[in-house]
Design brief:
The chain is α+β, with helices and mostly antiparallel strands. The longest helix is centred in the N-terminal third of the chain and has 27 residues, at 3-29. Strand 2 (69-72) and strand 3 (75-79) form a beta hairpin. It has a 4-stranded antiparallel sheet with strand order 3-2-5-6, with no helix packed on it. It has a 3-stranded mixed sheet with strand order 4-1-7, with no helix packed on it. It has a single domain, classed as Immunoglobulin-like. The chain has 3 helices and 7 strands.
């Protein structure tokens, strides 16, 4: 093997190591409490469903009509349709409320089921 071939292989290995390092760093970033600080940013970008909570469940809300504001225990989580992580402990009661101007609010209380995905379709009737 020539010296040029050895150098080219070394460069290829270093590029691979660099890419894997960035991937590991990105995964570590979104599995630590730093991800909670980035929550509003990921929510705005529509990425809320992609970071994992350490405890809790995934909430998937749609509203009829579309565009209701979603609140979880009084905290505004955004506009439906939305997918968001809900941090809670197993069995803890959580209140989900969906509101839209001109319509009565929709609300449900659910028990936290850690690691599950809860799909909610809120019908906002007159």
């Amino acid at each position: 093997m020539s010296r040029e071939d050895s150098r080219a292989r070394l460069v290829d290995w270093l590029r691979l190591i660099s890419r894997v390092s960035w991937l590991v760093l990105a995964l570590a970033l979104f599995s630590t409490p730093i991800a909670r600080l980035l929550g509003p940013v990921t929510q705005t970008l529509g990425l809320a469903g992609f970071s994992r909570p350490t405890r809790g469940f995934m909430l998937d809300v749609t509203s009829v009509p579309e565009g209701g504001r979603v609140f979880v225990d009084g905290v505004d989580r955004g506009t439906a349709p939305i997918v968001a992580n809900v941090a809670c402990t197993e069995g803890q009661r959580v209140t989900i409320t969906v509101v839209k101007e001109g319509l009565p609010p929709w609300a449900r209380e659910v028990a936290c089921r850690e690691g599950n995905r809860l799909v909610v379709r809120a019908r906002l009737n007159r």
